[in-house]
Design brief:
Elements lengths: L1 H13 L1 H12 L2 H15 L8 H13 L5 H31 L12 H22 L5 H11 L4 H26 L3 H5 L1 H27 L1 H7 L5
Helix pairs in contact: 2-4, 3-5, 4-8, 5-7, 5-8, 6-7, 6-8
Length: about 230
C-alpha cells in the first residue's frame, strides 16, 4: 500500500504538467485553490515536506503563458500562500519548540539536547535571514526552516521581513521562468528530466553537507587524524 502511494506520488511529480492541464480542463478556476493549498501546506505544515512546490510554480507559469491561467492572479495567490504558510510554520515552532525542550518528563530528557537548541538560536540570530530566503529553493528544507526559526525564537519581525523577501524571490522567479520558457518545445519535451535535475541539484548538496558533518563528528575519524592514530 505504501509502495503504491509512493509510486503514485512520483508519477504525479514526473507528470505534473499533464495533471495540472487535465485539472484545469475539468475544474477551471478551482486550480487556483488547489495550487494555493499545495503551496500553503508544503510551507506551513511540517508533516508535508514532500509536496512538489517548485514544479507547480514553474508549470503554473507555463499555463499562464498559454492564457489558461491569469499570471497576476496566480502570482498574488501563491505569494499569500507562501508567506502565510511560513508564518503558520514559524508560529507552530515558536509555540511547541521551547515547551518540548523545557519538558521534564522522566526518560525524555535524555533525547533532548537543550544546548543544541541554544546553538540553533544563536545561528538564526546571525544567519537566520539568508537561511529563510535560501531554504525556499530547497525541497524539504523550506518546510523545516520556518519551524526551526520559531523553535529557536528568532525575532518575529526579522523573520517576517526575510519570509516575505524569500517568498517574492521564489514565486516570481519560478513562475516567470515558467511563463517565458515553460512552453519552449525542448523544455516541454524534457520537462520531467528538468524537474528531476532541479530537485537533485537542490537536495544533493544538502545531503552531502550533512554526511560531511557526520563524518567529521565520527570519533573513529577523529582518532585517525590524531598523531599516532591508525
Amino acid at each position: 500500500m505504501l509502495l503504491d502511494t509512493l509510486l503514485q506520488f512520483f508519477n504525479l511529480v514526473l507528470h505534473i504538467d499533464k495533471f495540472l492541464g487535465e485539472f484545469i480542463h475539468q475544474y477551471g478556476t478551482w486550480v487556483y485553490a488547489v495550487l494555493f493549498l499545495i503551496v500553503f501546506c508544503e510551507t506551513g505544515l511540517v508533516v508535508l515536506p514532500f509536496l512538489p512546490g517548485d514544479s507547480l510554480l514553474f508549470i503554473g507559469g507555463a499555463f499562464c503563458a498559454t492564457g489558461e491561467m491569469s499570471l497576476p492572479l496566480l502570482i498574488g495567490l501563491l505569494l499569500v500562500a507562501a508567506v502565510l504558510g511560513n508564518t503558520v510554520n514559524y508560529m507552530i515552532g515558536r509555540a511547541i519548540g521551547p515547551k518540548v525542550f523545557n519538558t521534564h518528563i522522566p526518560g525524555l530528557d535524555r533525547f533532548l539536547d537543550r544546548a543544541a537548541l541554544q546553538k540553533t538560536h544563536n545561528f538564526y540570530e546571525k544567519h537566520g535571514g539568508k537561511t529563510i530566503v535560501l531554504a525556499r529553493f530547497i525541497p524539504v528544507v523550506r518546510t523545516f526552516a520556518p519551524f526551526v526559526a520559531g523553535a529557536s525564537d528568532m525575532d518575529v519581525r526579522r523573520f517576517q521581513f526575510f519570509n516575505i523577501a524569500g517568498a517574492l524571490f521564489w514565486v516570481l522567479l519560478l513562475v516567470l521562468l515558467g511563463y517565458f520558457f515553460g512552453n519552449i518545445p525542448f523544455i516541454r519535451q524534457y520537462l520531467n528530466v528538468i524537474v528531476l535535475v532541479g530537485i537533485g541539484a537542490a537536495i544533493v548538496p544538502v545531503v552531502l553537507g550533512a554526511l560531511w558533518k557526520m563524518m567529521r563528528k565520527d570519533p573513529a575519524a577523529n582518532v585517525a587524524r590524531k598523531p599516532g592514530g591508525r
